[in-house]
Design brief:
493 residues, 55% strand, Immunoglobulin-like, globular, 1 helix, 2 domains, mainly beta, Methylamine Dehydrogenase, Chain H, 5-stranded antiparallel β-sheet
């Protein structure tokens, strides 16, 4: 555990070849509950594994469910997999049964990981994928996702309504007017109008080559469509998560292809993280739209939460290295904004060694102390992949002060315009210029690596040679009498 009250931990589960932690929450007693999917080597089956730890991440217990006759499957298109209650929590997932059918399940557990009940949801088309679940206004559940035929897998958005015990009351399928497909990523219900809102995407084309469009559907309380709207142009975008804010508006988040006709390295698309606030009673009333950070291959907002003061916490992934033909290093990303989407701070966290490489946030939840728990996907890690979680304090730091001053630094908030550096990326020589800053002769510069370690510390010079540094991301920091004045990110090629 690190000095600022945060940590990043991996859990290697017995016999598991591949693991992915899909969600993590804080229990009422302060312990941590994480859930996810593991591939069991001896039986060759995908299982649900629940791990309980204390508040510091020390493992207390783990429990596994499933077999080669009933497998729990990871749908990587969805984020989250848990709903937290006062005395229990609920897990949802798609599964494969002994008849090779693909239904989905909603399961109630106590905070010791013991099953209280399990409900299965089948479809005549065989494939039924739950991607989002929310509490309804009458204390039941609203479920969204999609159905798809195994031979002709055109996706149809799904709504299922249940009572408080998970018993199905009704379901609706929402077809796209022009055939192809659409699905629901997450769902909410407005307490005043009882309208249901689904965020997801629809697509045109074939499964191998399609254009996606971020999509919002609004229905009445019985699932009859009232409005639908896409929020992107000719290039692909999609919504991953959705919340209703205290002012009774909605915010959806995801990613947006930049349509710059440049593509990414090796022809891959390039994106920006994407957030949109809208009025559920009039989808043409877009309150604000935001895009975040530099265009790159891995840039998305996967999850969103609202804080008690109305601020928003957005979690996702971010990597610019591939833009410079360097190996991927996808960092955990947290952005705090006000209610209008204006950035208060922007933190990119990466503490992994080369074997773990990169982390994608699958979910982010707020604890009782105001810190953040993230469930991470070690997408590029070698097998056996572990469960991975990170606890981040309320200021967006997961470790030491020096780490938070560098890796977690939003350059725009600390006098970015004071420092000019070029060329960047650089192979060796880096030129440094100072503007609009009155100072004496006690300036110091530091070059700090991604782990917050000072690689170089010297009196200020207008030119430094970085030829001996390994390729990767570094930070150039400017100090005046030991006070950090400005910082700029360096890409070493």
């Amino acid at each position: 555990m690190f000095s600022q009250g945060g940590f990043s931990k991996n859990y290697f589960l017995p016999n598991s070849v591949v693991s992915v932690c899909t969600d993590v929450i804080e229990a009422p007693n302060g312990n941590i509950i994480m859930t996810g999917l593991t591939f069991d080597g001896p039986t060759g089956s995908n299982r649900l594994t629940i791990v309980g730890t204390d508040a510091n991440g020390t493992e207390l217990w783990q429990k596994s469910y499933g077999s080669d006759k009933f497998e729990y499957l990871d749908n990587f298109l969805s984020n989250r997999s848990l709903i937290k209650g006062n005395s229990s929590f609920y897990f949802y997932s798609c599964v494969r049964d002994s008849n090779n059918k693909y239904p989905s399940v909603l399961i109630k557990f106590n905070f010791n990981g013991d099953t209280l009940w399990q409900k299965k949801f089948y479809d005549t088309n065989d494939y039924l994928y739950i991607q989002g679940v929310a509490k309804s206004v009458d204390d039941g559940f609203l479920i969204t996702g999609f159905c798809a035929h195994p031979v002709n897998p055109i996706e149809t958005t799904l709504i299922i309504k249940t009572d408080s015990n998970g018993n199905e009351l009704w379901r609706k399928k929402i077809n796209k007017p022009i055939p192809n497909g659409q699905n629901g990523s997450n769902i909410i219900q407005d307490s005043l109008t009882k309208k249901i809102v689904i965020a997801g995407y629809q697509y045109d084309g074939t499964a191998s080559a399609y254009t996606g469009h971020a999509n919002i559907i609004v229905t009445d309380s019985l699932g009859t469509v009232l409005q639908r709207k896409t929020f992107s142009g000719g290039c692909s975008s999609f919504f991953i998560d959705l919340i209703q804010t205290k002012d009774k508006k909605c915010v959806a988040v995801g990613q947006n292809d930049q349509c710059d006709n440049l593509g990414g390295p090796n022809g891959t698309a390039r994106h920006k993280g994407y957030a949109l606030k809208f009025d559920l009673n009039n989808l043409n009333n877009v309150i604000w739209t935001k895009e975040f950070d530099q265009t790159c291959v891995y840039n998305s907002i996967n999850t969103i939460n609202e804080l008690s003061n109305g601020d928003l916490i957005l979690g996702g992934r971010y990597d610019t290295l591939k833009n410079y033909s360097l190996p991927e290093k996808v960092m955990l990303r947290l952005i705090k904004t006000d209610k209008d989407g204006n950035v208060k701070w922007n933190k990119n966290l990466s503490r992994d060694n080369s074997n773990e490489n990169s982390k994608f946030i699958r979910s982010l939840n707020v604890t009782s102390s105001g810190s953040y728990l993230t469930a991470n996907w070690l997408y590029f890690a070698a097998n056996p992949k572990p469960y991975s979680i990170t606890k981040i304090d309320s200021m967006g730091c997961d470790s030491t002060v020096v780490y938070c001053q560098t890796v977690g630094l939003n350059e725009n908030t600390i006098n970015k315009n004071i420092l000019s550096i070029y060329p960047n990326p650089t192979n060796d020589i880096l030129n440094i210029e100072i503007e609009n800053f009155n100072h004496d002769q006690n300036l110091t510069i530091k070059v700090v690596d991604i782990l917050g370690r000072a690689i170089l510390e010297i009196p200020f010079k207008e030119q430094i040679n970085l030829k001996d540094l390994k390729y990767g991301v570094y930070f150039l920091e400017l100090y005046d009498k030991q006070k950090l004045i400005s910082s700029r990110k360096i890409i070493k090629q």
